[in-house]
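Hello again, I could really use a second opinion on something today. I owe you a coffee for this, so here goes:
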Amino acid sequence: MAQTLALALLSLVSFVKRDTKGLPLPPGPPPLPFVGNVVGIDSDHPWLAYSRWGSKYGEIVYSRLFSQDIIIINSERVAHDLLDRRSQNYSTRPTGVMHVLDFFGVEFSSIFLPYSDRWRLHRRIFHQAFRSEAASSFRPIQMRNAHHLILNLLASPEPYGTHLHTFSTSIIMSVTYDYSTAPLDDPFIALVERSLEISVRELRPEVAALVAEFPILEKLPSWFPGAGFVRGAILQRSLVPLIVDTPFEHVKKNMAAGTAAPSMVSDALNRMQDKAKSEEEVAVLEKAIKEASSSGYAAASETTTSTLYVFLLAMVLYPEVQARAQAEIDSIIGEALERLPDWDDRASMPYINAVIRETLRWFPVVPLGVAHATVNDDVYEGYYIPKGATVMANTWAMARNPEKYPNPTRFMPERYMSKVAVEESSTRDRDDISFAFGFGRRVCVGRHVADASLFAAVVNILAIFRVERAPGWNVGPDAEGVEWSGGLTTLSEPANADTLYSRANLPLAMRKKR
């Protein structure tokens, strides 16, 4: 208790003495002594409070969680100004998050690495595999898995959550490791699911700030009431070696046998062998390839699955959108289902493309992005932004901007069709939903692959199925009444928290159209 009190007093004193160089901090809610702006925030859904603050205080808001400065960006304009145009100062990650990552045994995660030579090496490995020019080479894998998704849904539509996660994970595992997952109950996917559940729940700026303020929390015994954080870390540390090493060794084994197909890891290892000059350099590069690959497939699987949940929810709540999208598909492939859609059809499906854009906007599955941090003090529009501040881009608020998206709570793909866009608003670049993939040097490197995976799944589901509301399910068109899980990503709240992807609590029915 004495240690905790001393830490509290120290952090309070350091906050009071901070020199803002005579400039005001951005406006924000008045903090309470020591704890800051904890009260009134739903820790599972903080973006809702941040959006309310944005309506009251403006596009850039200051808050504090214990001694941690938090800057919340509620508009694309400010996000582009700071995270894109001043990216040299806003591309690192909060130090508190790194401390938590180390406790969980995942300090190597590319997504959370501070801006450094190590991160740049990871980024280069990703870019070589996922840049837009290379992404098209994965299309056969993506469409093949979309067809497997359809077959699984035809065989057993009820556990559609399992099928969606298998689809997402199978694609990224094939792309990254040339690893073919089992159609159902793949043991490796089960490990990834468990690990992701822990990461989504625990690796948040709010959790990091609390643990950074009270490091004694890490010393709590796992049996202690409320020590779920510690139990999660113990489990995660046991899963990490299996998740990181198993698929990587699978690739190396196939390369040694001469049977390895092209993949992110095999291509990177081949480049390494061509260019490396010493054993030390080989060891550094191989370690980076292993770390980057395991970081990438975990993130891609989670976000693609969550986005497909949002798509299905929209189809249930907006049957007229589903009907129009299916009519567009039928006009190209034939109402008698003469064939399944393919990549060459995409250019002729503007409404399907609009549905995908609106899915990304309507319920952003990473509503606060991944937190940035300032390397040095900064001044923006007369406001002082402290060094080391956590900076969060409130994607949720950007997606609900009524000036850019009239009736923002409604699912309206028509807003991306040129005629409607001209009628509703003079805002330019109305189809720009790039904020869903982040900003600056930390923008999602796999966004081109993710977009293609979404198209493959969406167009095939709509070609075969009619998604319907289950009898007795009363949810409004703006998704009122749907429970959403909290964490880095959000999706419909599970009925059983121990089986994150084996279900969804959306009581929908997927029936064959024909």
